[in-house]
Design brief:
Layout lengths: L1 H4 L7 H34 L4 H16 L9 H32 L7 H16 L2 H12 L3 H25 L3 H9 L4 H40 L2 H10 L3 H30 L6
Helix pairs in contact: 4-7, 4-9, 4-10, 4-11, 5-7, 6-7, 6-9, 7-9, 8-9, 9-10, 9-11, 10-11
Length: 279
């Protein structure tokens, strides 16, 4: 007993601190969970969420889901053309967005463009980023009518909003001494852009362009459902006509297209930016 009583009390200090820290973390986590639960209940009450309708809808959804199978395999041939329209629309809009985003990014960079031009271009980019593709699509339908043209323009403008923002930020992060070194050789502003700016941002433009292609494929399907054509339009019309097996086939082809676009983008990204080759 004397040996045990002689153990210094301060040996248990770290354990007490650890226990106190764990208790404090649990209290914070419990408080956060209670707050989230209270906000969820309040939001559900304000939005008139009916749990009975949710439970009833699960049963109806199960029955409806059974109507989608088996898919209409005979319609694969006639869906190849709309599928290609969606893929080509995404590809062309990505290329147009990449080409147009470069001058927009230069005009939106503080170390390249004057302040008034930068303010105007940054405002334009912010507006483009703030407008969803479907909103731009509806506005363009009023101008061009239904078809692939408004979808192509909407995706191109949306690509500019994303790519120009990323490129402009990348240009502003270029080391000032690199630009000053090129200017010190007597180079003009266009030569500075050609030899000091573009080589720095070109890899970023290609990488972000590949990612934007994936986004445009998915967005192209959504825009197709509201009038841009392609596989999205086939899916929408099939659902409206209650032809669920045909809609299921269109959905499967859409998933294949999205998966293929992601794998293709990953292939080029690895080959171009990881020291590989395109062979």
């Amino acid at each position: 007993m004397g040996a045990l009583s002689s153990v210094p009390v301060h040996r248990y200090g770290p354990f007490r601190e650890w226990k106190h820290g764990r208790t404090s973390q649990c209290a914070k986590a419990t408080s956060a969970a209670i707050l989230v639960l209270a906000l969820t209940v309040l939001a559900s009450w304000r939005c008139d969420v009916d749990l009975r309708s949710f439970v009833t809808g699960i049963g109806k959804g199960t029955v409806l889901l059974g109507m989608f199978f088996p898919p209409d395999w005979k319609s694969i041939g006639e869906m190849m053309q709309p599928l290609a329209v969606t893929a080509v629309m995404a590809l062309i809009s990505t290329i147009c967005g990449m080409c147009l985003s470069l001058p927009c990014a230069l005009a939106a960079s503080s170390n390249i463009a004057p302040k008034p031009l930068r303010f105007v271009m940054r405002s334009f980019i912010a507006v483009e980023r703030g407008l969803p593709e479907i909103v731009q699509m509806l506005l363009l339908i009023a101008i061009f009518g239904l078809g692939t043209v408004p979808g192509l323009v909407a995706l191109s403008f949306s690509s500019i909003g994303m790519l120009a923002k990323l490129l402009a930020d990348g240009i502003e992060e270029i080391e000032p001494h690199m630009l000053e070194a090129v200017e010190g050789t007597g180079a003009t502003r266009s030569q500075v852009i050609r030899y000091a700016v573009i080589p720095q941002i070109l890899p970023s433009l290609l990488a972000n362009g590949l990612f934007r292609f994936e986004v445009n494929v998915r967005a192209g399907v959504i825009l197709g459902a509201v009038g841009a054509g392609g596989i999205g339009y086939v899916m929408s019309t099939s659902m409206n006509s209650l032809d669920y097996p045909r809609a299921c086939m269109a959905t499967l082809l859409t998933l294949i297209l999205v998966f293929a676009s992601e794998r293709l983008s990953d292939f080029f990204r690895v080959r171009l930016f990881s020291g590989g080759t395109l062979r």
